[in-house]
Amino acid sequence: MPSRQFRVLFPPIASLAALTLVLGHFALYGKPHEADEGAAAHLFQLLMLTQLPVLAFFALTRLPVAPLPALKVLVVDVALALAAFASVYFLTG
Question: Is 11:56 a contact under the CB 8 Å cutoff?
């Protein structure tokens, strides 16, 4: 059972961590004026990228078995990911 919980919880937690990272970095340092990306930007990219294989595996294995609960998890993750990307766009653009 721990592996199922991991598949369900990792993508939303990674998106929430990325959103928290962006908002926390903005709260501490304000709008970035650096020409090169810093460690926070690289960490954001890694958080968003590492959840893709886990999310794809979850969708492939759980959607056929339990479509409604799996779809709820996918919608929550997509909403959190969009919030994280939107915060990067609006706070750094």
Answer: no
